[in-house]
Design brief:
21% of the residues lie in helices and 33% in strands. By secondary structure, the protein is of the alpha+beta class. The chain has a single domain, classed as Cytidine Deaminase, domain 2 (3-Layer(aba) Sandwich), CATH 3.40.140.10. Strands 1, 4, 5, 6, 7, 8, 9 and 10 form an eight-stranded mixed sheet that branches. Strands 2-3 form a two-stranded antiparallel ribbon. It is globular. It starts with a strand and ends in an 18-residue tail after the last strand.
């Protein structure tokens, strides 16, 4: 059975100084709730199971001699095509690329007019797939969000773990205080 879970983020701001000795504290709290569905692999629909299997297979194509952390990602396009990627490390660390960005950049380069409808991510390390989900880094989240904005459509995100899968309805759920093109306007 797919269960819903809410992840909350809390942000606090405080402080204005009345004079050099007295600080008046005021606090505003913003609560951001992120809906996520939690299920087993077997509870995923057929398309998402196929996508996760492709992401798992792509972990074996990872080039990760430094971290030994094999990550695979698979993007399902609106036309039914699946484009996949894996992490590619480099001794000059910033020159490497995560699996999620590898898959999305390949999808956007090869199918520039076709939206990505879902992205699955899996990890293989220490001789087995991760029991718990792994979460994308901030740069990957930003690229996922840009992909959604590019096509003006949400992209379902599936994070695979042997014990459970998390399903987000949109990349925006993974990056609640995000930076998008509108932020570039003065």
């Amino acid at each position: 059975m797919i269960k819903s879970l809410r992840i909350s983020f809390f942000f606090c701001t405080f402080a204005h100084q009345i004079d050099s000795n007295i600080i008046f504290l005021s606090m505003k709290q913003i609560i951001i709730k992120t809906p996520v569905s939690v299920c087993s692999f077997d509870e995923l629909d057929n398309d998402l199971r196929i996508l996760v299997e492709k992401a798992k297979a792509m972990t074996q194509n990872a080039y990760c001699p430094y971290s030994h952390f094999h990550v695979g990602a698979a993007a399902l396009l609106e036309n039914g095509q699946i484009v996949a990627g894996s992490n590619q490390e480099n001794a000059a660390y910033p020159s490497g690329l995560c699996a999620e960005r590898t898959a999305l950049f390949a999808a956007n380069a090869n199918y520039p007019h076709t939206p990505v409808v879902a992205l699955a991510i899996a990890c293989y390390a220490n001789g087995h797939f991760s029991k718990n989900i792994i979460s994308p880094c901030g740069a990957c989240r930003q690229v996922m969000l840009e992909t959604e904005h590019r096509f003006a459509k949400p992209m379902k995100i599936v994070l695979y773990g042997e014990d459970m899968c998390y399903i987000f309805d949109s990349a925006a759920d993974l990056l609640p205080l995000n930076f998008v093109a509108e932020n570039l306007q003065a």
